[in-house]
Amino acid sequence: MGYALYAEHVLELYPCPLCVFQRIAVIALGVVSLVGMLHNPYGAMRWFYAGWAGLAANLGALVAGRHLWLQSLPADQVPSCGGASLDYMLDTLPLADVLKNVLTASGECAEVTWQFLGLSMPAWVLIAMLALEAWIVIGLLLSLRRDEAVAA
Q1: Global pTM value
Q2: 64: closest CA among 111, 22, 13, 113?
Q3: Between 20 and 30 A from 71 (CA), which of 20, 52, 64, 112?
Q4: In which residue ranges of the chain is pLDDT below 50?
C-alpha cells in the first residue's frame, strides 16, 4: 500500500477501479493479519483469522487476475469503460451494480502505465496475494504440527 500511495501521489499514476478494489483487498488482508498477530489465537480462532485472511487474499488475487486479463487483450477487444467514474457510481448506484460494472466493463483498466521487471502493478499484486496465501497455509500447517507435538 505504501508504494501504491507513492505511485498515486508522487508519480501521479491514479488508480483505476480495479486498482481500488485491489487496494481494498490488500488493506483487508493487512488488517486481519495484524489483528490475528496481536491476538495470537489458538484452536478455532486460528482458523477464523486464516479464513478471513485467505478470503481477502483470494479476492485480491481474483481482481488482480481480471486486471491482468484486461491488460492482455488486444485494443479492439477491450470492453467499454462504462463512462462513469468509480466515485460517481458509488454515489449513485447500489454496491452490487458498482461491482458488476467495474468487474465486467472496465476498459480504462486495460492500459499499462507502470512496469517493474516487465510486470505491471496488478501482476505484482497477484504475486503478492498468492505468496501471502501460501504463507497463511504454511503457517496453519506448522501451527497444527506444533500443537500435535505439544500434545504428545
Answers
A1: 0.78
A2: 22
A3: 52
A4: none
